[in-house]
Design brief:
This protein has about 325 residues and is α/β, with parallel strands linked by helices. The chain is about 45% helix and about 15% strand. It binds alpha-D-ribofuranose (RIB). Alpha-D-ribofuranose (RIB) binds near residues 68, 146, 275 and 276. Alpha-D-ribofuranose binds near residues 69, 146, 191 and 219.
């Protein structure tokens, strides 16, 4: 039989209520009683039964964080920021990765609802908005992460990805590049669509500039390497002078392909800029220029929005980080 709260009370010589206060409202218990209770807990190996507390409170202390790709350092950093803020509130984060699978995304929502999660933070892939509203009507609030909400009643936190795409291509245009390619993803991913829109806006501002759009099946290093091989295989006259990758993983992959194939120098032959400014971007063989997203702050803000009363939309601005992959001699 598992050790019960009554066993602990008996061993410590206090009431069950005192043991409960030590666990839930420690500020209401004297140091002496607290020490006796904690000693009894350790001696007996007592583990609190969260299910009972959950039933009383109606919700668990777990926040479900559903991301597109937990292998992407951007989401790992976002999760770290969310976890730090959740810990301050006595909550925990459970990360689930959809990897672009809509069925898996809905299965995670079902799981967190059944678990009576404290709330859900979701970077949606293909989720039905009606399912999210159903989640909320069943008592599990949610916050959209890395995607803006289309309606006032839903909280969201994201970066202005249209501005980010604009910033990346403006940087390349200001360096004098006119034949530019944007690499990555399908426009069905809202982050990709917004960055592409921003890139097109910047190109439209400069007569004579052109934008080639190269879609990839994934937003991964391998997809970037494949795109890099394809570009390097072209005649020099057919290659772009600069490339904007919609995330750093793609840019890292392209850089690897150019370096392995050997006949494309970065930035001399092709300037290269990514998006996210993951930690690895600064230490690639040619340090990568990127558009920085405050990933950890996005995660922490998402938890704040979940704890806050009333919906709110937080929109962060992206930041250009210039390194050697676009400007020779840059750090
Ligand atoms: O998941 C694709 C991309 O969207 C990530 O690299 C990050 O940029 C997110 O916003």
């Amino acid at each position: 039989m598992p050790v019960s709260i009554r066993d602990v009370a008996l061993r410590a010589g206090v009431s069950v209520g005192t043991v409960s206060n030590v666990l839930n409202r420690p500020d209401k218990v004297s140091e002496t009683a607290t020490l006796r209770v904690l000693t009894a807990i350790n001696e007996l190996g007592f583990v609190r039964n969260d299910a009972a507390r959950q039933l009383r409170a109606g919700r668990s202390r777990t926040i479900g964080l559903i991301v597109l790709d937990s292998g992407n350092p951007f989401f790992a950093d976002l999760a770290r920021g969310a976890q730090a803020r959740a810990t301050e509130a006595g909550l925990v984060i459970m990360v689930a990765s959809t990897d672009g699978d809509a069925d898996r995304e809905h299965a995670y929502l079902d799981l967190f609802e059944e678990q009576r999660a404290f709330g859900v933070l979701i970077s949606p892939h293909d989720v039905d908005p009606g399912r999210l509203e159903q989640l909320r009507s069943h008592g599990v609030p949610y916050v959209l992460v890395d995607k803006g909400a289309n309606e006032p009643a839903v909280s969201s936190v994201t970066v202005d990805d249209v501005a980010g795409g604009r910033l990346a291509v403006q940087h390349l245009l200001r360096l004098g590049h006119r034949r530019i390619a944007v690499v990555g993803g399908a426009e069905s991913i809202s982050q990709v669509a917004d960055r592409l829109l921003g890139a097109r806006q910047s190109i439209a501002q400069v007569p004579g500039a052109s934008l080639e759009e190269i879609a990839t099946a994934e937003l991964s290093v391998l997809a970037g390497r494949e795109a890099g091989r394809d570009v390097a295989a072209r005649l020099r006259a057919d290659r772009p002078h600069a490339v904007f990758c919609v995330n750093d993983l793609l840019a890292v992959g392209m850089l690897q392909a150019f370096s392995l194939l050997g006949d494309v120098r970065v930035p001399e032959d092709i300037a290269l800029i990514g998006y996210d400014d993951i930690a690895f971007a600064a230490s690639t063989v040619v340090p990568l220029s990127s558009i920085r997203q405050p990933s950890a702050l996005i995660g922490a803000t998402a938890v704040d929005l979940l704890l806050a009363e009333g919906p709110k939309h937080v929109l962060f601005q992206p930041e250009l980080v210039v390194r050697a992959s676009t400007v020779r001699g840059a750090p």
